[in-house]
Amino acid sequence: MEKEPVAELCAEDIAHYQDLASQYAKKSLLPIFQGEYSDGNLELLPEKLKTAFEIGIAASPDESLSGCQYGIWGSAIEETGVIPSLLILSVIAETCGGVAMSLHAQGVASNLLLQTKRKLNFTPVKVAVGLQEGFCPPFLGTIISPDKDNPAKSITTAEQKANNYIINGSKSFVYSLRGVDAYVVFARVSEKWGCFLVSTKEKGIERTDMGVRTGLRACCVEHVKFNNVEIPLEARVDDGDARSLVIRAMILNWMGMSAIAAGVAKGAAVAARRYAAERYQGGMQIEEHPAVKMLIAGAEASIDVAEAALYSLQNAVLTSFPGLKKSAAVKLTIMDLCSRAVTDCLQTFGGYGYMEDYGMEKRLRDVTVLKLASGSSAYLKQLIFDIEKEGVL
């Protein structure tokens, strides 16, 4: 679908970002799915992700890497806004939601580190964010004051001792590229948030790979425990209160996941149209059947609305409660729209839609995980209500 120009982005800019992502997906990702692999041959993935760094699709806190500032959530978003990153994620997700999620997680962590004016104690290439504890992100009360049981304080703490911080706690569902060099860890420092760059090589870190999961299998997911992990004072990224970085991490995460869901749904719609044009039943192509027309048209209408919601995020303030509320509302809306779109597209395949051969069951698995990850519908609704109720806008 041809897009209308967005603020500060012309049609040529939009076409450029879409073409860059499309070429990467076509040349690097499609070969992974050759053969009998429902989620692709993941052994080939490291090489393909390396290409993403080389061509400037992946961001990194290591600014010596050519073009990394223009990668997903790279420092260039301060000039271009969020739309280029959302476009790239959506186009990549048309081919593989898991790869898009890997690059998205890398970008969010990189963006947080690029915000700091301090000199990092070391410069990692691959990074991941550790924020979530348990099965959902922090609620509003915890975002405001991580030391208050409202409803539950942050269990990850950082205590200063001499020239070091000692970190204890755990982080759940840490999405990342495989082989990350460091974590961007949010922890409670007295009554405020702190943000720390922690090398994965530090003593006291226990990492548990979640293994094969329902969806987004191309993306690594870990549970990480910190047992008296000692890091230097210079490892602290914020300037005394990291609450704005907590909000920024949540907003970027929900924006990116929404874009990935839209891409997964769009890939499903393209596949459904192609199948409906090729499949014959009763002496005619099934695309001529009224029921199939309604399924595909309904899915494409949902996708159009989802993409319009994505474009509404261009001017969102990434460190504000209004931005947090809007990104939560967009994720809530887009996930419902895209889940329905993927389900409708799968139905055009009949029973074949549930077989691995057509890739539709993978899309259903991916969009289902996206809907639940980093904040379910129930969590998002409560957060939206609480922000309005508490008047923190």
Question: If you had to describe this structure to a student in words, what would you say it looks like?
Answer:
The chain has 393 residues and is of the alpha+beta class. The chain has three domains: 11-114, Butyryl-Coa Dehydrogenase, subunit A, domain 1 (Orthogonal Bundle); 127-242, Butyryl-CoA Dehydrogenase, subunit A, domain 2 (Beta Barrel); 244-390, Butyryl-CoA Dehydrogenase, subunit A, domain 3 (Up-down Bundle), CATH 1.20.140. The protein is built from eleven helices and nine strands. It has a four-stranded antiparallel sheet with strand order 2-3-7-6. A three-stranded mixed sheet has the order 1-4-5, with helices on one face. Strands 8-9 form a two-stranded antiparallel ribbon. Helix 1 runs parallel beside helix 4 (83-95), helix 7 packs antiparallel against helix 8 and helix 7 (243-278) packs parallel to helix 9. The chain is globular, with a radius of gyration of 21 Å. The relative contact order is 0.12.
List descriptors.
393 residues, alpha+beta, Butyryl-Coa Dehydrogenase, subunit A, domain 1, Butyryl-CoA Dehydrogenase, subunit A, domain 2, Butyryl-CoA Dehydrogenase, subunit A, domain 3, 3 domains, four-stranded antiparallel sheet, globular
In DSSP terms, counting alpha (H) and pi (I) runs of 4 or more, how many helices? 11
For this entry, what is the oligomeric state of its chains? single chain
* Global outline: globular
- Topology, number of strands: 9
Order of helices and strands: HHHHHEHEEEEEEHEEHHHH
Might you state the CATH topology name of the largest domain? Butyryl-CoA Dehydrogenase, subunit A, domain 3
Low-confidence stretches: 1-5
Tell me the major beta sheet: 4 strands, antiparallel
**Classification by helices and strands:** alpha+beta
Ends: how far apart?
35 Å
Placed side by side, the strands forming the largest sheet appear as 2-3-7-6
- Count of structural domains: 3
From the alpha carbons, calculate the radius of gyration and give it in angstroms.
21 Å
CATH architecture of the largest domain: Up-down Bundle
Helix content: 40-55%
- CATH superfamily descriptor of the largest domain: Butyryl-CoA Dehydrogenase, subunit A, domain 3
Estimate the strand proportion: 15-25%
